[in-house]
Known about the structure:
Elements: E1 19-23, E2 26-29, E3 35-37, E4 41-48, E5 54-60, E6 69-70, E7 73-75, H1 82-94, E8 98-113, E9 116-129, E10 141-148, H2 160-174
Amino acid sequence: MRHPLSLFNFCPKCGSNAFVENDFKSKRCKDCGFIYYFNPLAATVAIITNNKGEILVATRSKEPAKGTLDLPGGFCDSYETAEEGVAREVLEETGLKVTSAKYLFTIPNIYNYSGMELHTMDMFFRCEVENCETTTADDDVACLHWASIEELDCNDFGLQSIRKSISMFKKLYKNNML
């Protein structure tokens, strides 16, 4: 697939078509000097567990990876902290209100969207929620279910960073490191 910067032909500051490759991660306008850096987008993921040793798992209703398993989460909005973003996404996708979001780890990812590879920085949070038994699948989630942490198969998850996170979380959980 083409580098995402190849899709940007005009300077976003002055509109010039003299927008050229500066290096692997940036383009520079020959006319106004503006440099655009293609940095990763901030995304959050919620790991929600119950007292039965289960994790809340979603089924994706949209591409990419439609029909595969996923965890609640999504892109952060402007002027939003990662904690606010994960809480908003959990509410939008599950109907659950996050009461605590504790950072676990970060995994870089490539998210294919509309034929473009978006580089993301996926931040994973262990989230506590109010009344975890009353979920409502919404937004880009087809359905939700609780699955045994020990029995989760990473290969059932469609997105690369989610597969890696499930593996990492299972190890942390097994070793009582959470």
